[in-house]
Amino acid sequence: MANEPEARKPLLEVKALSKKFPVYGSFGRLFGAKQYVHAVTDVSFTLYEGETYGLVGESGSGKSTTGRTILGLTPVTSGEVRYRGQDLAKLPPKQLRKLRRELQMVFQDPYSSLNPRKRIGRILEEALVIHRIDDRQRRQQAVFRILQIVGLQPEHYFRYPHEFSGGQRQRLGLARALILQPRIVVCDEPVSALDVSIQSQILNMLRELQGELGLTLLFITHDISVVRYISDRIGIMYLGRIVEEAPTDALFANPQHPYTKALFSAVPRISERGLKERTVLKGEIPSPLSPPSGCVFHTRCPLATDRCRSEAPAWRETKPQHHTACHYA
């Protein structure tokens, strides 16, 4: 695990990041947007060099959109994404392209992110060609090296994506991200579609590579067990907002937010008396087209009061390095 954040240098700072998607009417863009999907709202966190920050939440909570917006794959609506002091959201395309090799992403579905008409060697070399790194012979040698690093064989260079298993494709996704020797890798649900045994192989490989290559990881997932194993700090997302953040051990020892407690209780745990009781959240997640007023979780929270319905909770430190957005935490 990484050292305490105070002893480390901030590498990426996300400040008040928001992303809205326009929803148009029957006439398309002619009369402008009628509504907006509030995918990410006022999200702030810091990535320290060499650590793994886990972003957890239910499907539709805005985790993937946060990752894509940070990397500039989706334009920022408002807020700042500062990498080594530079605001990526305001950089001209030419300058942003130079930083692309330092900021890479592993996508949730590796097969859809691999061109089925190209051999793996050409797919992995493509990033080196785009950034004009080395000549053809050296690029080929770099591909052979990265295949070995992620646990694949040299002969895989000549195969097509459909000839690989799910675990091997995920290794290829990692290889494509790592071949540029990035400093930050955003991992978007990298093991969610894999068998448990393959999950452990990928996670162990990620931890080993992080130590060897000095990587900083933003790990996006909905799997509580996975994020507990790999993360140094964790941010809990609900309806586009981070509602709690703490070091991993502190968060699991004493979760403060009702939503975090409900997520943790949903993980099956067996005691001497059998399966432990879980907290069942009532109702459905509100639509991001019209988020609730006040606390966004009040429609499903067992502790909600009139204050929660009318007043948004402040982001405050309830314990050292432990922040929560809840009136009653």
TrEMBL record:
The lineage of its organism: Bacteria, Bacillati, Bacillota, Bacilli, Bacillales. The keyword Ubl conjugation does not apply. This is ATP-binding cassette domain-containing protein. One of its GO terms (biological process) is peptide transport. It comes from the Bacteria. GO terms for molecular function: ATP binding; ATP hydrolysis activity. It holds the Pfam family oligo_HPY. Belongs to the ABC transporter superfamily. InterPro entries: AAA+_ATPase, ABC_transp_ATP-bind, ABC_transporter-like_ATP-bd, ABC_transporter-like_CS, Oligopep_ABC_C, P-loop_NTPase. SUPFAM superfamilies: P-loop containing nucleoside triphosphate hydrolases. Keywords: ATP-binding, Nucleotide-binding, Transport. It comes from Cohnella fermenti. Residues 12-264 form the ABC transporter domain.
